[in-house]
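Query structure, 795 tokens:
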């Protein structure tokens, strides 16, 4: 039963591995077999990229659509109800209040200032008409030449006055004027008393009770219909107030005769208002106010309390809750998700195809792209939910907003930089800064902040050779964030907005602290990614460079010659990689481990053999070649058991490429018999693959050059230089660098580094006095075998 389960498990694992390899080849555009043409491989690669983009956009949109706060059931209480608990908005939205209620419309109508037409010449024209009327009636009816005695009745005079002045006076006023024969004295007193109303605003009724709150808008009909607003309507007289004013004027002049009383009664009766309500413009103003009230949206933010516990729900709050209920419905959520998905798909499609540095995002392997997705979505989720927690912590100090600056935003960019390089890290910083600003209610300032701190962290970590470099990087990132907060605050102050300086200083401190948090979080996460996904970061390389590592310690004990050779190869590879701007730390550390597989059979490799004891002398050439090949497979196995990481394992596997073991191949050719099968050259070539990176190519060259120079009997600068040049040329002619981006210029630089170092290492030494005599007996007693040239690939 157990055997069957193990067999099933192995079959499933094999199938999954094959499927994963197929997906990786498709995503990376690596064809396999003659059935896949270059065009077919390219189409499959493009399709895989689109599928990846769809998955990335879908998961991100799903993350954004899920509420980041505690979901509360919105019961939409009716106006007047008392809330039993705080009702909190689960999302941010600008809500259209919709149609106004009758009460709201009535309030707006009452609070809208009416429009009045003011004719500043009305009083003057009124007095002019009366002056003309007095003169004409006096001439026509009361002059010596007039012959209208029969018409001197109140009815006739009333009609005549109505025609001349446009006003109808009571019969008693007509009789008074008739008895005084419309005299010039009456005319003078009438006009003089009426002149006291010039420049006054007179309305038909008292405006103060109705418009003391709103004021009125006065349209000057004689001045191009210019408008003025009068807030203090007590300055405006009604007709009654004007009459009282005229009575006080006459009383002050002490004219209390019957004739004066009659004149006052005539004037006050004939007073006309010069301020009249414009009904049409007032209705238009009310309609405009109602229209603006309907257009004004209500901004609601996630976490905002709409109705507090114990508070009576107003009609406006009820409408807001009803709108939020509609926005959180299933249909609205689906629409929001689809729009977010479309927006993100377009954004990612453009961003992932940017090729600014020549190392575009789509050059990543499937593993890197998958880890990129995991880190990105993880940052979005952590940001949304940790923001609620942080705001809750800082709520006692009345700092609900602005605390987002304490979150370690740059940690994700640091992780991506250490795992995949600077170019991918900048893609990550651009993507996350845009989406985080969108999550934070389309906050443009936070988008700028997130990108700036991430970019500062990426630039400052260039080469992490010590763990303390992470904290320096975090401090620099935090400093940039703090300066940005100060800049944002200064921008607000220039705009004459009040600044809460205590909250601003707190945000500055939080921004600086976030950089340190990012460094701590990065140092915690990197070992996790190294263990789970097999990454080899610079931090791990620093740990592996310790010679007390179990593999290096065992190599020194079991194969001291290989150990010494590996240390020298590490120095050569580091110098050359540094000169061609490759990863010198990776090249050096990989060189330490590139031959660890020789520990299984150390005596089968010449650098570990005692004099005159070569076990290959008793073996067939094909068997010797297999033993040499096995050290690569054994090294990969040991490295995987000790979790060296994919980068080092790849260099262990690739440091011989597909080179030929020429020594044993020639040996086999010499032993070849005509009647037997011809020696197959492919049986004497390493299985590969060829170097896939510049670092692997440098380690291959350093390994071959160091091993070959050991075989020179009397090493001179010329011999060393010729040997190194021949080896590099041979590797190039064998197309060992066809799968990595190592250029001819890089090869020339590497050759120069190798020559300088190896010439210094194997320089001629001065013979010390007595050295020949000390070595003579030993050389006589021990028969030294002739020097054997070291086989290529035997190092």
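Result returned for the query:
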């Amino acid at each position: 039963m157990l055997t069957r389960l193990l067999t099933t498990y192995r079959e499933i694992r094999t199938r999954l591995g094959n499927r994963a390899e197929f997906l990786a080849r498709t995503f990376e555009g690596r064809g396999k077999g003659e059935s896949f043409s270059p065009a077919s491989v390219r189409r499959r690669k493009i399709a895989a990229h689109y599928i990846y983009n769809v998955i990335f956009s879908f998961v991100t949109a799903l993350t954004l659509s899920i509420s980041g706060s505690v979901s509360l059931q919105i019961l939409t209480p009716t106006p007047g109800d008392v809330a039993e608990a705080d009702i909190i908005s689960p999302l941010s939205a600008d809500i259209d209040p919709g149609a106004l209620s009758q009460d709201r419309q009535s309030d707006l109508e009452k609070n809208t200032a009416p429009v009045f037409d003011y004719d500043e010449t009305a009083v003057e024209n009124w007095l002019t008409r009366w002056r003309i009327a007095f003169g004409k009636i006096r001439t026509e009816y009361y002059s010596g030449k007039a012959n209208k005695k029969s018409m001197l009745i109140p009815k006739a005079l009333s009609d005549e006055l109505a025609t001349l002045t446009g006003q109808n006076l009571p019969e008693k006023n007509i009789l008074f004027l008739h008895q005084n024969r419309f005299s010039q004295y009456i005319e003078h007193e009438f006009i003089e008393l009426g002149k006291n109303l010039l420049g006054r605003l007179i309305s038909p009724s008292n405006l103060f009770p109705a418009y003391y709150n709103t004021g009125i808008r006065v349209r000057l009909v004689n001045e191009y219909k210019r408008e003025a607003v009068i807030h203090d309507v007590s300055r405006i007289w009604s007709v009654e107030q004007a009459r009282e004013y005229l009575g006080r004027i006459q009383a002050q002049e002490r004219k209390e005769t019957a004739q004066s009383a009659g004149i006052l009664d005539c004037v006050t009766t004939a007073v006309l208002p010069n301020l009249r309500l414009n009904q049409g413009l007032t209705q238009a103003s009310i309609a405009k106010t109602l229209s603006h009230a309907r257009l004004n949206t209500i901004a609601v933010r996630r976490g905002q309390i709409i109705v507090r516990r114990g508070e009576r729900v107003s009609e406006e709050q009820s409408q807001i809750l009803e709108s939020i209920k509609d926005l959180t419905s299933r249909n609205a959520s689906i629409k929001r998700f689809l729009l977010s998905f479309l927006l993100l798909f377009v954004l990612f499609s453009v961003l992932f195809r940017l090729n600014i540095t020549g190392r575009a995002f789509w050059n990543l392997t499937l593993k890197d792209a998958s880890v990129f997705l995991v880190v990105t979505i993880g940052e979005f989720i952590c940001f949304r939910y940790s923001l609620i927690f942080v705001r809750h912590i800082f709520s006692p100090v009345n700092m609900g907003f602005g605390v987002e600056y304490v979150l370690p935003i740059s940690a994700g960019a640091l992780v991506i930089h250490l795992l995949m390089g600077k170019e991918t890290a900048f893609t990550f910083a651009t993507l996350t800064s845009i989406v985080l600003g969108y999550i934070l209610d389309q906050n443009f300032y936070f988008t700028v902040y997130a990108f700036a701190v991430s970019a500062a962290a990426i630039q400052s970590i260039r080469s992490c050779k010590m763990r303390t470099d992470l904290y320096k990087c975090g401090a620099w990132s935090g400093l940039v964030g703090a300066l940005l907060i100060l800049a944002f605050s200064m921008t607000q102050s220039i705009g004459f907005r009040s600044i809460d300086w205590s909250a601003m200083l707190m945000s500055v401190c939080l921004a600086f602290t976030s950089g340190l948090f990012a460094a701590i979080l990065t140092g915690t996460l990197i070992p996790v990614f190294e263990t789970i996904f097999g990454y080899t970061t610079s931090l791990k390389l620093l740990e592996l460079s310790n010679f007390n590592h179990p593999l290096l310690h065992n190599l020194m004990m079991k194969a001291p010659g290989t150990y010494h050779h590996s240390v020298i190869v590490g120095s050569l590879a580091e110098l050359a990689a540094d000169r061609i701007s490759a990863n010198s730390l990776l090249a050096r550390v990989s060189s330490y481990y590139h031959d660890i597989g020789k520990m299984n059979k150390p005596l089968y490799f010449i650098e570990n053999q005692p004099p005159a004891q070569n076990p290959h002398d008793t073996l067939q050439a094909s068997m010797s070649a297999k033993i040499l090949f096995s050290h690569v497979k054994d090294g990969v196995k040991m490295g995987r058991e000790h979790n060296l990481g994919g980068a080092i394992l790849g260099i262990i596997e690739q440091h011989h490429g597909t080179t030929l073991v020429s020594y044993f191949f020639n040996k086999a050719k010499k032993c070849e018999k005509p009647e037997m099968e011809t020696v197959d050259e492919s049986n004497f070539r390493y299985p590969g693959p060829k170097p896939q990176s510049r670092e692997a190519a440098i380690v291959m060259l350093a390994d071959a050059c160091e091993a070959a120079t050991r075989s020179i009997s009397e090493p001179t600068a010329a011999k060393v230089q010729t040997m190194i040049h021949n080896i590099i040329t041979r590797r190039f002619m064998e197309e060992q660098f066809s799968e990595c981006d190592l250029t001819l210029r890089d090869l020339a630089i590497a050759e120069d580094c190798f020559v300088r170092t190896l010439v210094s290492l194997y320089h001629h030494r001065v013979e010390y006095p007595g050295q020949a005599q000390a070595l003579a007996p030993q050389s006589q007693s021990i028969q030294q075998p002739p020097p054997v040239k070291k086989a290529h690939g035997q190092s």
